[in-house]
């Protein structure tokens, strides 16, 4: 049994993260994202919020520092349903882990 891994990380997701390296990307998206049409390797995390997934993944998975932008967000396609508080939450979580990496490098 592994310790220190969030219970929301499925074995399939843990396996996918373990196989990733520099330049590989992972997309965390809502249920309306057309993942299957873009890539056959889709792991569903039904019922989970992206903020919770970020908090569970980032302690295990370093952001790639060999690229200029280790993370980015897709622009919303529907401005009337845009949630700027949710976007701020994503930024806060990602910046927290990004700054942890920079501090560890010093």
Structure characterization notes:
- The chain has 106 residues and is mainly α.
- The chain contains 4 helices and no strands.
- The protein has helices at 11-19, 35-38, 50-57, 84-105.
- Helix 3 (50-57) runs parallel beside helix 4.
- It is globular and about 45 Å long.
- The relative contact order is 0.15.
- Mean pLDDT is 84; it is low at 102-106.
Which tags fit this structure?
mainly alpha; 106 residues; globular
- Dominant shape: globular
**How would you spell out the order of helices and strands?**
HHHH
**Structural class by SSE content:** mainly alpha
* Multimer state: single chain
Q: What is the total tally of β strands? A: 0
- Distance separating the two termini: 33 Å
What would you say about this model in short?
The chain has four helices and no strands.
Topology:
Layout: H1 11-19, H2 35-38, H3 50-57, H4 84-105
